[in-house]
Specification:
Blueprint lengths: L1 H11 L12 H6 L4 H4 L5 E2 L9 E8 L9 E9 L9 E6 L10 H8 L2 H4 L2 E6 L16 H4 L10 H19 L8 H14 L5 E6 L1 H12 L4 E7 L9 H24 L1 H4 L5 H17 L2 E3 L2 E3 L1 H5 L8 H15 L10 H9 L9 H12 L8 H14 L4 H5 L24 E7 L5 H10 L4 E9 L13 H10 L7 E4 L4 H5 L18
Length: about 525
């Protein structure tokens, strides 16, 4: 009987299990809503340099939704309202991925990128998820080296890898221990529903990329009656969170690498890496072995074999991988770099460094979510060593990086279990065939997990992020149609993508119009 008394409060927080009896509609209507659901955002112009229509506000949300009247944290939100109230359908929340990506500026981006018939139907709502950016940010006090988790497995260095993982976990616990247990996907989904409530919306529409697909999927399961038009772009497989999502980078790098060898062999006259896929592969692995024996001098930067293998993501873009390998081969042979080589970009790819030094905020949130969403991470260091050694042989490009030890081995146990995917979700999933961060098998896993969903697959599509990330993508039209009508396709859609702009450019790094924060270690 005491559970009945608190059911309205728990339901608002997404904490009621299906077996908990709810109050009657009359009783629920009489119960006051928690304070965080009754607040009104104080909207103001975000910046004098930006359009007046781009507004910002800060709201308060419970740190722990089990104690909604306890400690609160800030949640930074933004909006650009529909300029055609007659056509307005509702509010669309936006998320760029991460975990740890800022989404405050997404309304500005989408306002320019969306076609008029889509744009005018929605108030576009951005937000920094809890712990990120302007939303009561957390830090672990990590230096640049500690933020890098691209660590190849070698028996002689595994002890230092264990020390690194334990150090990251200890630093995070020391700096943000009172907050870390609550920086999770389930709590961010609850924050989304708080945003919906304070905006006065009955339902919420949503566009989420990469990690944002898992966030959207969790919301659809926790708040199915409030889920409106949801587009989940570049899918995270709920069955793989989160170690499995890192390991899938290794398994799916292998077919991408094989595709690259075929592409380069077909252009052997131009690139001279080999005239068969086997020959191209031998050239690459010969280069790795050579760099392991004696690092390649790339204009003052020493490049070893592990650094070359760590750029596994670039092989999903054959037109960009090939010039990189050609330049490394030239450097190894002490020959001049090919004309047009962008040395700065090459070094950035090989080191995985950001263009500018960054704080550890994004990394801190990444580990908080990756370690705090699920208790499936192995707790014994020996398991990581066995897996890394095995996967280095099975998936030579990246297997040991993916399975090596991570800070989650030393993280505190999660407060909640992961969200079961057992409710119908009439949502649209979108996927490129050749996606380096959330590979096709992951997007297919998300589609399978969400019963009632439809999938739009851009066959031949390269890159991470589909809808509006590539203006020429064949997937844009069916997504436009869904967002304007609310009607899912009658069946899954597979369309053929045109030749990518990335191939025509032949640049070393894919450019994106949208701020999807997927570096070598992001979703």
């Amino acid at each position: 009987m005491r559970l009945k008394r608190f059911a309205p409060l728990l339901a608002a927080a997404g904490l009621v299990a299906s077996t908990v009896p709810l109050l009657s509609a009359t009783q629920a209507a009489a119960a006051p809503a928690p304070d965080h659901l009754r607040q009104k955002p104080a909207w103001h112009r975000c910046s004098p340099e930006l359009p007046a229509s781009y507004e910002c506000a800060t709201i308060k949300v419970p740190l722990d939704y089990r104690r909604p009247e306890g400690r609160t944290i800030d949640l930074a939100i933004s909006r650009m309202k529909s300029e055609n109230p007659a056509e307005r359908h509702g509010a669309m929340l936006l998320n760029p991925g991460g975990p740890g990506g800022s989404g405050l500026d997404l309304p500005l981006m989408m306002n320019e990128a969306m076609p008029k018939e889509v744009r005018e139907q929605y108030d576009l709502i951005g937000f920094d998820p809890r712990g990120v950016g302007a939303s009561s940010p957390i830090t672990c006090g990590l230096d640049d080296a500690e933020q890098n988790f691209n660590r190849a497995y070698r028996p002689e260095t595994f002890g230092s890898d264990v020390t690194w993982a334990r150090t990251v976990a200890d630093k995070c616990r020391e700096k943000a221990g009172s907050v870390l247990p609550y920086i999770t996907t389930r709590n961010t989904a609850r924050d989304m529903d708080t945003i919906r409530a304070v905006l006065g919306e009955r339902k919420l529409s949503y566009l989420g990329y990469s990690y944002g697909t898992y966030l959207g999927a969790v919301y659809s399961q926790m708040f199915p009656d409030r889920t409106d038009r949801f587009v989940l772009d570049s899918g995270v497989d709920p069955q793989r969170i989160w170690r499995g999502m890192i390991q899938v980078w290794a398994t799916e790098a292998e077919p991408a690498f094989a595709r690259w060898t075929q592409w380069a062999a077909q252009r052997s006259a131009e690139y001279q890496l080999g005239d068969t896929p086997k020959a191209v592969s031998e050239t690459f692995w010969g280069l790795v072995a050579r760099a392991d024996k004696e690092p390649i001098d790339l204009e003052g930067m020493k490049v070893d074999g592990d650094m070359i293998r760590a750029v596994r993501a670039v092989f999903f873009y054959p037109a960009q991988a090939t010039p990189l390998v050609v330049a490394l081969k030239a450097a190894a042979e002490a020959k001049p770099l090919p004309a047009g080589t962008t040395l700065t970009e090459m070094k950035r790819l090989l080191t995985g460094a950001a263009a500018e030094p960054a704080s550890d905020n994004s990394t801190a949130v990444f580990w908080a979510v990756a370690c705090g969403d699920t208790g499936t991470w192995p707790r014994y260091t020996e398991q990581y060593e066995l897996d890394a050694a095995k996967d280095k042989a099975r998936y030579p490009l990246y297997g040991d990086f993916a399975s090596n030890i991570k800070p989650c081995a030393f993280w505190d146990r999660p407060v909640e279990a992961a969200t079961p995917m057992n409710k119908k979700a009439n949502v649209l999933t979108v996927q490129n065939e050749w996606d380096s961060q959330t590979p096709l098998v992951s997007g297919q896993g998300l589609h399978r997990a969400l019963k009632g969903s439809r999938m739009v697959l851009a066959a031949g599509g390269e890159g991470h992020g589909v809808y509006l990330a590539d203006p020429a993508s064949c997937a844009n039209a069916p997504v436009h149609a869904y967002l304007t009508t609310g009607k899912l396709p009658a069946q899954d859609v597979t369309c053929q993508n045109p030749a990518s702009a990335a191939e025509q450019r032949g640049s070393l790094a894919p450019s994106k119009r949208l701020p999807i924060p997927a570096g070598p270690g992001r979703f």
